[in-house]
């Protein structure tokens, strides 16, 4: 059976409904929430602060340390708390996708910590995490070249789709999931992972539709950040 | 003149295009890529002549030479003190910069500043890797006894002080409190009574909230006269 209608009735190039909010964690230097469909990510930023152990310090620039974590109640089957192989890898790719947007040379020998907590997971968690983290970094007043927006694209059955949910990811005839992160300033791709197989033509098309959705997400992120500070100013 | 896309006091976010022209120059909080000037912070845009600046609305205090700061003694070393000033690293206060008294060898340094003491100090030197030196020799630089300390966002400190200190003078006059404003966002307040101190705290919080609005000094003057 061909996949000619999406399980939740969306158009093939339509993302799930999204929500963004800045400043959700009071004790953090900067924080943000990003929701896409049923996936919810909360990111908090601390720093720049002193880095221990000292041998990790870089006297030329500050470093970024990202930590991705899925809470035990975020999925149907209880997830064992704490880091695992998957979360360590996602922390690393998140770090690499955020770093091109930052300018930490003003803060030598320091660290900026980013903690991403997935409180509800329905696919696309690393993308939601990256979106939340880039807003939280902006909220924390870290110098940035631009915001980072991320979305997953893929191939379900024989159709190219954007923003897969859990049902689509587990599609019985096979699904390919490609997370894309993009720097808003010059449309630079900072994350591109491939899990499954697609043709060369397909991936070109997928990056194109992915970047369109990233632009929508970027608008939402900008609005959320402006709303927070406009609200503070209007009081 | 070229294309400018923002107005004075607009809220901008990182990566937002401020101007597309070589006629404008990127100031603090902005950077240029090709012909385009982008913002680096969430902040308020400000245009002065050809220079475009962004004043950040959030973020930690970044130490600068000549700043008056309020710090807390965190550690005592052989040659002086380590002071927490709200930056990633503690600042150093050398013995010879702390007092003009002659300090004997092996003297007990706690007689000058003890652990947890709060001092007002001036930054004398910031090295490239952000090693900070302080001094407490100078007018108004001393150990702060009694009173209370509140913290505000460091980027709003200039509004608490006002033009040529107009706001802070007004506050001191009307509340009768002694106030020291540190550039690191810490404010020390000491008054005759609890009520007067609380009034000063209330007004400072109000200034912090309304820092962007026009005619701030007049509004605060009215507010103080009503209460």
What does this structure look like?
The complex is a heterodimer of chains A (235) and B (227). Chain A is an alpha+beta fold and 235 residues long. Chain A contains four helices and nine strands. In chain A, strand 1 (18-22) and strand 2 form a beta hairpin. The longest helix of chain A has 35 residues, at 200-234. The model of chain A has no long low-confidence stretch (mean pLDDT 92). With 227 residues, chain B is of the alpha+beta class. Chain B has three domains: 3-56, OB fold (Dihydrolipoamide Acetyltransferase, E2P), CATH 2.40.50.100; 68-135, Beta Barrel (OB fold (Dihydrolipoamide Acetyltransferase, E2P)), CATH 2.40.50; 148-226, K Homology domain, type 1 (Ribosomal Protein S8, Chain: A, domain 1). Chain B has a five-stranded mixed beta barrel. Chain B has a four-stranded antiparallel sheet with strand order 1-3-6-5, with no helix packed on it. A four-stranded mixed sheet of chain B has the order 2-7-8-4, with no helix packed on it. Chain B starts with a strand and ends with a helix. Chain A binds chain B through residues 29-30, 47-50, 59, 101, 103, 106-110, 138-147, 183-186, 221-222, 225-226, 229-230, 232-233, 235, and chain B through 11, 13-16, 29, 31, 33, 38, 40-42, 56-60, 62, 88-89, 128-130, 155, 209-210, 212-213.
**Given the helix and strand composition of chain A, which structural class is it?**
alpha+beta
Oligomer: heterodimer
Spatial extent as radius of gyration of chain A: 18 Å
**CATH homology superfamily name of the largest domain in chain B:** K Homology domain, type 1
Rg for CA atoms of chain B = 21 Å
Helix content of chain A: 25-40%
């Amino acid at each position: 059976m061909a996949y000619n209608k999406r399980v939740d009735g969306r158009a093939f190039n339509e993302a799930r409904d999204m929500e963004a909010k800045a400043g959700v964690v009071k004790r953090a230097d900067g924080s943000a929430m990003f929701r896409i469909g049923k996936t919810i990510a909360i990111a908090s930023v601390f720093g720049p602060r002193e880095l221990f152990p000292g041998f990790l310090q870089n006297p030329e620039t500050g470093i970024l340390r990202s930590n991705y974590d899925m809470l035990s109640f975020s999925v149907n089957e209880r997830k064992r708390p704490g880091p695992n192989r998957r979360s360590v890898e996602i922390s690393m790719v998140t770090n690499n996708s955020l770093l091109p947007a930052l300018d930490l040379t003003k803060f030598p020998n320091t660290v900026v910590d980013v903690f991403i907590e997935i409180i509800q997971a329905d696919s696309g968690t690393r993308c939601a995490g990256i979106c939340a983290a880039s807003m939280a970094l902006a909220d924390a007043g870290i110098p940035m070249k631009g915001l980072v927006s991320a979305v997953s694209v893929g191939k379900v059955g024989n159709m190219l789709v954007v923003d897969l949910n859990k049902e689509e990811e587990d599609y019985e005839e096979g699904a390919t999931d490609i997370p894309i992160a993009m720097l808003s300033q010059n449309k630079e791709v900072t994350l591109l992972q491939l899990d499954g197989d697609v043709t060369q033509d397909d991936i070109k098309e997928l990056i194109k539709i992915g970047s369109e959705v990233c632009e929508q997400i970027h608008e939402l992120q900008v609005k959320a950040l402006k709303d927070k500070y406009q609200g503070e100013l209007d009081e | 003149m070229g294309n400018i896309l923002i107005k004075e006091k607009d809220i901008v976010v990182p990566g937002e295009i401020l101007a597309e022209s070589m006629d404008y120059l990127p100031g603090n909080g902005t950077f240029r890529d090709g012909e385009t000037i982008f913002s680096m912070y969430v902040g308020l845009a400000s245009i002065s002549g050809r220079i475009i600046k962004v004043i950040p609305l959030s973020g930690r205090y970044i130490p600068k030479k000549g700043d008056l700061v309020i710090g807390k003694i965190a550690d005592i070393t052989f040659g002086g003190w380590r002071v927490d000033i709200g930056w990633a690293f503690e600042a150093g206060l050398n013995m010879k910069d702390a007092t003009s008294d002659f300090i004997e060898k092996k003297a007990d340094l706690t007689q000058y500043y003890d652990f947890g003491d709060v001092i007002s100090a001036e930054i004398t030197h910031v090295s490239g890797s952000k090693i900070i030196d302080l001094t407490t020799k100078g007018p108004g630089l001393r150990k702060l006894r009694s009173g209370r300390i509140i913290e505000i966002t460091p980027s709003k400190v200039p509004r608490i002080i006002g033009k040529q200190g107009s706001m802070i003078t007004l506050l001191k006059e009307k509340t009768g409190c002694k106030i020291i404003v540190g550039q690191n966002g810490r404010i020390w307040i000491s008054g005759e009574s609890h009520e007067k101190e609380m009034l000063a705290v209330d007004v400072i919080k109000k200034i912090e909230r309304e820092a962007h609005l026009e005619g701030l000094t007049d509004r605060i003057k009215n507010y103080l006269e009503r209460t």
